[in-house]
Amino acid sequence: MNDTVVLYVHGFKSSARAAKASMTRDYIRDYEVDLSFDAMDLANTPAEAFSDMCGLVEKYLNKGVRVCLIGSSMGGFLSMYLSAKYNLKAVLINPCVYPWNYLETVKGRQINVYTGDEFEVNDQHVADARKIAESYEINPQNLAVYLQRGDEVLDYVDASVLLGRSALVHIEDGGCHQFDHYEFCLPEIIRFLRS
Predict the structure, then answer these.
(1) C-alpha to C-alpha distance for 130 and 172, rounded to whole angstroms
(2) What Cα–Cα distance (Å) separates residue 52 from each residue in 39, 91, 179?
(3) Per the confidence metrics, is the pTM higher than 0.85?
(4) Count of C-beta atoms within a 10 Å radius of residue 179
(5) Are strands 4-9 and 66-72 parallel, antiparallel or unpaired?
(6) What are 95-123's pLDDT values in tens digits?
(7) 3-state secondary structure of 173
C-alpha cells in the first residue's frame, strides 16, 4: 500500500461506482500515480454517511496512511467537514454546501438508483446536515473547489461565496451537476492532493 490514499466520497443517491469515482481510480492506475484509491457505498442519510466516512478515514489514519479526499455534490459537503475534523486535503466537485436547503426540497420517499435502496428523507436528516456543519470550522487552505456554472441542481454561487478563499478555485462556464470533462481536471486535482 502507498503512504497516501485518495478516498472518493460520492453524492446523494449515488455510490462508489459513480463515473467520477471510476475515472479517478482509472487515472491513478493508468498513470501509475503513487497513491492508493478507495471508495465505499455510503448510507443515504447525512449523519450515517458522515459516520461511515469517519470510520474509513480513521481506518487509514490508524495505519499511518495519509488521507486525502475527493467529494462530489453531497460528498463534497461531507468532504469539507471531514477535512475540517481530521485536517485533510479535499477536492470538492460541485459541492452541496447547504444540504439542508436541498434536502428540504426532496423530503419523502427516495430510491438510490445505483443500489436500489429505498429510504425516506425527513426533518431529522435536514437537522443532521446542519449539525455536521455547525460542529467543525472549515480550513479553506486545505480545500480545492471545482464548479461549473451550468450546474442544474445546485447554484454554483453558493459554493463560490462560501469557498472563495480556498487554496484552489476552478470555475468554468457551462457544464452540469455531473461536472463535464472531469477527467481533464484530474492532473491538477492529483497535484493538489499530493502537495
Answers:
(1) 28
(2) 11, 19, 25
(3) yes
(4) 21
(5) parallel
(6) 999 999 999 999 999 999 889 999 999 99
(7) coil
